[in-house]
Amino acid sequence: MTDHRITLMAAGELRDALTAHRNGDTAAAVAALMSIDPQSWAAIEHRLAALGGTLAELLPDTH
């Protein structure tokens, strides 16, 4: 059975990435996403897939 837990740190990094993206700061968004540990990233992808989407679909083109 796969553990689908997202750490608090990863949740904060995802929030920071989404905020940076919204503000047009691509470098900060990428840096925040790259800081997410692999297990949490897998859990994030799993939850998004359960909702029928991907992270890219959550990111509107704000530029």
From TrEMBL:
It comes from the Bacteria. This is Uncharacterized protein.
